[in-house]
Amino acid sequence: MATKTKTASTAKKAASKKKTVSTSSVKSKTKSADLQLPAPSKVEAWGMNHYSLSPVLFPKTQEEFQEIFSYANRHKLKLAFRGGGCSYGDAATNTKGVVVDISKFNRILEFDSKKGILKAESGVTIKQLWEFGVQKGFWPPVVSGTMFPTLGGALSMNIHGKNNFAVGPIGDHILEFTFLTAEGKILTCTRKKNQDLFYGAISGFGMLGAFLTVTIQLKHIYAGKMRVWPVVSRNLQDMFDYFEREYKNSDYLVGWVDAFASGSSLGRGQIHKANHLEKGEDPDFPANTALEKQNLPSTFLGIVPKAWMWMFMLPFSNKLGMRLVNFAKYISGFLTDNKPYLQGHAEYAFLLDYVPNWKYMYKPGAMIQYQSFLPKENAVEGFSEILRICQKRGIVTWLAVFKKHKPDPFLLTHALDGYSMAMDFPMTSGNKKRLWELAGELDEIVLKYGGKFYFAKDSTLRPEIVQRAFSKKNLETFHALKKKYDPKGILETDLYRRIMGIW
Ligand SMILES: Cc1cc2nc3c(=O)[nH]c(=O)nc-3n(C[C@H](O)[C@H](O)[C@H](O)COP(=O)(O)OP(=O)(O)OC[C@H]3O[C@@H](n4cnc5c(N)ncnc54)[C@H](O)[C@@H]3O)c2cc1C
């Protein structure tokens, strides 16, 4: 029988929640007038390339969000939300104000086990979602390459998965959300009700108000594993042709690109295509959805704790080392070429989480990601030009990922009918200037080919590039919504100030 239940832990946790705004170091009193801000602490971008020193508040209830908003309106305080802090750049830092960390507002509230409809607070992470759903035969419809983003962060950026070409971004699977506008009103938003906010807040990078609860449609699965095909591609054209040939028969497609290869091998790499199994195809279902079978192993080869693994990558964290790693990965791809295997959902989806803190291999420097999106017709030519320019400038991405996308109806969405390439670059005090110049050069190539950018991954975009990349009409609508729902302008992040030119 279908159950639309309040989840088991909800009532207990709710009872234990106190009506105080919790701060990182100082407890505030219940009245917002008395809200005391804690001492600033370091709030860092995921790529470690930027930070702010900001007081951090941790609201646990809707009332606490409202108190913070009311306080900010009265005291002309700038607020920035932060979910899992998984945006690569300055999307969730606030040099000029307070950070509102939503990670403690994280209860799953209701679940309809027949329809797979789940309602949760916006601080619930993708990890919580899949761990809750998988044993009941449901998987989140869209996940990022890491499981630590929250629903709030995912909706704000309208994240995409390796299945973007097939199912669209996360926004396409949201049935309803409740939203606290900067003025303190709670509105219910659906495709029909408060439509402007539904399409604007999803993709609105936290600038219109706070997602409170989110109702999402999960995907039914009939197996604990998926069938995965690893396929070598000899250059970018080869990879593109495979995607175009296979996408109609694929649930997920992702390409890894060896950005060091040149000439006729430019853009060579390996594709991983994955398909869900049909009902009855997995004899071990549902036993193999048990969390201990789905969760990523805590050791590598059964011996080395995964938490240490990034240290083994240190000897390779230089240009020569990365050239070797990329070469070795490409060559080893031939051993498994076109030999399908079964792989657990989490293993396939969250490959990057295999090595916790892998970003530390960039220390003592940091990293940025540059992800651009090009229309299908220009993808091979444009991304080839991008790879060539990087090589020419002597700044080659250590990790490049290729994905296919489709357009969606959200206001400031990054997706289009085409492809994206996400490129990780090391950032040091020595190369920062050259890296930013390179990014500027790449921006022009992206614009020349009619492309777009993604704020969740960005660290370098300038206002004039944003104005040229996004439609004038959509940017005007966004600014009108900002005026309507945040008239006093209390919501600002470092990203917002940078890309809107109001620093
Ligand atoms: C290793 C790695 C892999 C990734 N892979 C992908 C991928 O495959 N696809 C993809 O699309 N992205 C990917 N990302 C990016 C990531 O999914 C996005 O940056 C996402 O927005 C992070 O969510 P978060 O909860 O960490 O939010 P944060 O990074 O903390 O914040 C993101 C934005 O959301 C806003 N926000 C947070 N909570 C709320 C709220 N309750 N109400 C309103 N606004 C809010 C913040 O103000 C900010 O603007 C990846 C990131 C990493 C580190």
From TrEMBL:
Keywords tagged on the record: FAD, Flavoprotein, Membrane, Oxidoreductase, Transmembrane, Transmembrane helix
Region of interest called Disordered, as start-end residue ranges on this chain: 1-33
SUPFAM superfamilies: FAD-binding/transporter-associated domain-like, FAD-linked oxidases, C-terminal domain
Transmembrane regions: 197-218
Gene Ontology MF, one: FAD binding
Pfam families to which the protein is assigned, alphabetical: FAD_binding_4
Keyword Flavoprotein: yes
InterPro entries for this protein: FAD-bd_PCMH, FAD-bd_PCMH-like_sf, FAD-bd_PCMH_sub1, FAD-bd_PCMH_sub2, FAD-linked_Oxase-like_C, FAD-linked_Oxidoreductases_BP, Oxid_FAD_bind_N
FAD-binding PCMH-type domain segment(s): 48-221
Similarity comment: family membership: Belongs to the oxygen-dependent FAD-linked oxidoreductase family.
Protein name per its UniProtKB record: FAD-binding oxidoreductase
Species in which this protein is naturally found: Leptospira ellisii
Classification lineage: Bacteria, Pseudomonadati, Spirochaetota, Spirochaetia, Leptospirales
